[in-house]
Here is the input.
Amino acid sequence: MKSEFVFIDQYVPEIRWDAKYATWDNFTGRPVAGYTVNRVVGSRALCEGVLAAQRYASAQGYGLLLWDGYRPQRAVDDFIRWSAQPEEGATKNAHYPALPKAELLRQGYIAAKSSHSRGSAIDLTLYRLHDGALVPMGGGFDLMDARSHHGAAGLTAEETENRARLREIMENSGFAPYQKEWWHYVLQQEPYPDTYFDFPVA
Here is the structure.
């Protein structure tokens, strides 16, 4: 692993994670190229931001659950190959119910170059510290649908409030949101804004 990258759980005490792309529980329906362990990696600058966000969340009675951080370019390339393959349907209802998979790249849900590969992005949600339960967000991780957009219609008041709380936590910790994904945040001050890394998460 590059010297300026670390496992986030070693840098941020008591952080929770579930690295979805190292498992079968993601939109491809299988482990993704470049992920050989269920761990989340980030640049040290990203880790500092996550640590700040964790402290901000904890003061409100919440913890952070991470789904993805640094993403090797080979994983991004794997997503592109997957999107060009014939539809199998196994993950469609859970992850892209309203779109054909070939449209996911054009719609901005999959990208040929990702801020994750620069070590500057994090995918995450909130859980309640008192019981460990994830808070309702009105849609799961990698639901590639208008329901996942910031300001989406049709959410309950609680779901809207939870998304706003996560956004407040992240923006106050140096992150910017992505309009189409309530779970995705990018460091405003990236250490490697023009570099797309490809070392594996191993």
Summary: The CA atoms of residues 65 and 174 lie 18 Å apart. The chain has a mean pLDDT of 97. The beta strands are 5-7, 16-17, 41-43, 62-68, 121-128, 175-178, 181-187.
